[in-house]
Fold:
Amino acid sequence: MMNLRKVIELEYYKFRLYKPFVIILGLYILCFVLAGFAIKNVLDWFMTEQANDDVIKYFVKTGIPIFDFVDIWQNLGWLATIFKWIPAFIIINSVTLEYSQKTIKQNIIDGLSKREFLASKLALVVAISLGSAILFLLLGLFLGFLYSPVTGLPYILENIKFVGAYGLEVFGFLCMALFAAFLIRRSGITIILFLLYTAAIEPIFTSILKYHYKWEIWYFPVESINLLIQFPFAKYVLSYGDDQIIMRDVFVTMGWAVIFIGLSYWLLKRKDL
Structure:
């Protein structure tokens, strides 16, 4: 029977003792926090510089509620998606270093099963995903109380579902990174190929299928993950925007996460250490 406490402690000590992981994680937190303040400052600067434009005059008069409660959760969640590559690189390095430094082989010799080894990596995935959601929640509350004209509890809670959606988005993305690391096993190559696939190959391929061939593309892994929090800013210009989380995308993302975990275990069992 799996000793869950044992595998969590094992991963914790590995993570704590490897300084680059701690530095990258700190960079992730710093970028996340600074981005919230930077976006507000850039927006204020842009509106000041373009103050004579008729469209800008309209928004200055009516206000753009980017950091207002109700809107802030979707807006901040969509803007934060760019940073999910940073923890993905942490997961990739965590797995690939086990192979390059032969620690995975030593762990197995010392009595750790392959199932327990995978569980230790999943514990790291879950911890980072939960930490990301909590960081998102705290930053949203801070920016909301700082800039929002309304701070009543009903306004705060109305769209707080996007906090959970962001946590699921990070989890699904990290499960994908976990699979890539077990598949390729080399840190630099895995990071390059993972970045190419998630940022270029699948988005370009699905765009061709969608706009040229009129295919549905919601079932692709990166697409389903990105659809959890949809682009929110069109509503400020077009008075239309999707501020809902579609359960189809939730289930597809969860399904892909399960598939990536299952494939990671299959690779771990089939391939030589």
Observations:
- The two ends are 22 Å apart (CA to CA).
